[in-house]
C-alpha cells in the first residue's frame, strides 16, 4: 500500500487517511494520498484550507495518530472530505504540503487500545470444519451472532514491518509417536506452519460510553473506516492451545494493517445487500438492506515491486455473512 504500483486505488474519490513522515516533515503526522502524492493535512489546516469547518479543532492534523480526528462527528469528516476534494479540483495544494510516495515513511495510523477478531465468513467456517472435523460443521452460534475473540493490540504493526517467526509448543510431526498409546510428542520449537489470513479491519473512531447498547443500524456513526489486515497465524501452535479456551500465542504474535484507512464515505458507492439471516435476530442485530460492501480482495506472494508474484487467493467482502455494523453492535 506504499508502493507506486497502487496509484490507481488512490483517486479523488478515495482520499484515505494515514500517518506519514518525510524529510521535509520529519515528525509523523496526519496525511492523505492522491495517486502517488502524499498530502500533509496539517499544512493545509495551517494555510486555512479548512477554516470554513468550525467543528474542526485547531492543529488536529499535527497529531502522530488519527485518533483525535477519527473521534469527531461524521459531519466534520464529511466536511473535511469535501474541502479536500474541492482543493484538489482547483489545483490549489500548497507545494510544501505534498511529497511523492517514494520519499515518505508510513506509520501505524491509529493508537489501538484493544481489538476483536471476528470470524464472519460462512465459507471460511465451512472450510475449517472440513479441515478439523472432516465435514462442514459450523460453530453452534454462527447464525445467531458474529463469533470472535479478543486479540492482542500491542502486536498490531503497520504493513511492511518485519514479523518474527514465533516459537511455541507444537506437536512434533517429524518424529514417531511415543509410548504404548502412541501419543504425539509435544516440543518447544519455531513454528513450522506459519500462515496468513486476508481480512478487513474495522476502525472504531468514536467511543461508545460503557454500558451503552448499540443497534447495528446506528453503528456506522462510530466507524471511521476500514483497513486491509493480515491476521498472521501459527497453525501448529494454535492447534495445540485451542482446547478449551481458544487461541492465544498462535494468533497473537503479529497482526499487520495497511497504513491507509479508507473512510465509510468513500465506500458508500460500493454498498450491496448481504445474505439473509437464517434465524430470527434480536432487534439490535437486525441490519436490513445494503449493509455489505462490494470490495474485491486478493492475496499474492512475490518479490519486490510485485515481480514474479503468484496470486494465491481472491474473494469479495460482499460474501461476509455478518456486516461490520452487526459486529460492532454485538461487541457493544
From TrEMBL:
Its EC number is 3.7.1.2. The active site is at 124 (proton acceptor). Residues 116-331 form the Fumarylacetoacetase-like C-terminal domain. GO terms for molecular function: fumarylacetoacetase activity; metal ion binding. Pathway: Amino-acid degradation; L-phenylalanine degradation; acetoacetate and fumarate from L-phenylalanine: step 6/6. Keywords: Calcium, Hydrolase, Magnesium, Metal-binding, Phenylalanine catabolism, Tyrosine catabolism. Mg(2+) binds at residues 231, 251, 255. Coiled coil: none annotated. Pfam families: FAA_hydrolase, FAA_hydrolase_N. It catalyses: 4-fumarylacetoacetate + H2O = acetoacetate + fumarate + H(+). Residues 13-109 form the Fumarylacetoacetase N-terminal domain. Signal peptide: none annotated. Its cofactor is Mg(2+); Ca(2+). One of its GO terms (biological process) is L-phenylalanine catabolic process. Substrate binds at residue 238. Ca(2+) binds at residues 117, 197, 199, 231. Belongs to the FAH family. This is Fumarylacetoacetase.
Amino acid at each position: 500500500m506504499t508502493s507506486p504500483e497502487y496509484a490507481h486505488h488512490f483517486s479523488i474519490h478515495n482520499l484515505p487517511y494515514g500517518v506519514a513522515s518525510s524529510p521535509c516533515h520529519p515528525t509523523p503526522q496526519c496525511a492523505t494520498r492522491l495517486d502517488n502524492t502524499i498530502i500533509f493535512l496539517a499544512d493545509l489546516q495551517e494555510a486555512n484550507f479548512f477554516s470554513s469547518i468550525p467543528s474542526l479543532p485547531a492543529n488536529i492534523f499535527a497529531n502522530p495518530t488519527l485518533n483525535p480526528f477519527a473521534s469527531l462527528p461524521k459531519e466534520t469528516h464529511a466536511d473535511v472530505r469535501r474541502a479536500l476534494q474541492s482543493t484538489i479540483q482547483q489545483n490549489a495544494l500548497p507545494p510544501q504540503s505534498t511529497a511523492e510516495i517514494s520519499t515518505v515513511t508510513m506509520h501505524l495510523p491509529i493508537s489501538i487500545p484493544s481489538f476483536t477478531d471476528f470470524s464472519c465468513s460462512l465459507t471460511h467456517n465451512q472450510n475449517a470444519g472440513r479441515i478439523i472435523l472432516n465435514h462442514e460443521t459450523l460453530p453452534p452460534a454462527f447464525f445467531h451472532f458474529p463469533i470472535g475473540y479478543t486479540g492482542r493490540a500491542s502486536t498490531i504493526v503497520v504493513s511492511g514491518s518485519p514479523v518474527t517467526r514465533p516459537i511455541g509448543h507444537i506437536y512434533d510431526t517429524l518424529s514417531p509417536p511415543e509410548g504404548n498409546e502412541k501419543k504425539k510428542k509435544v516440543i518447544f520449537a519455531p513454528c513450522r506452519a506459519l500462515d496468513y489470513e486476508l481480512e478487513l479491519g474495522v476502525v472504531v473512531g468514536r467511543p461508545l460510553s460503557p454500558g451503552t447498547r448499540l443497534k447495528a443500524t446506528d453503528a456506522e456513526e462510530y466507524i471511521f473506516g476500514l483497513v486491509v489486515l493480515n491476521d498472521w497465524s501459527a497453525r501448529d501452535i494454535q492447534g495445540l492451545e485451542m482446547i478449551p479456551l481458544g487461541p492465544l500465542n498462535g494468533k497473537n504474535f503479529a497482526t499487520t494493517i495497511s497504513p491507509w484507512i479508507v473512510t465509510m464515505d468513500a465506500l458508500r458507492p460500493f454498498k450491496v445487500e448481504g445474505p439473509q439471516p437464517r434465524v430470527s435476530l434480536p432487534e439490535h442485530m437486525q441490519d436490513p438492506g445494503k449493509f455489505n460492501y462490494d470490495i474485491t480482495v486478493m492475496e499474492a506472494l512475490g518479490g519486490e515491486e510485485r515481480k514474479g508474484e503468484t496470486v494465491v487467493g481472491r474473494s469479495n467482502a460482499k460474501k461476509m455473512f455478518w456486516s461490520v455494523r452487526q459486529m460492532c453492535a454485538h461487541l457493544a
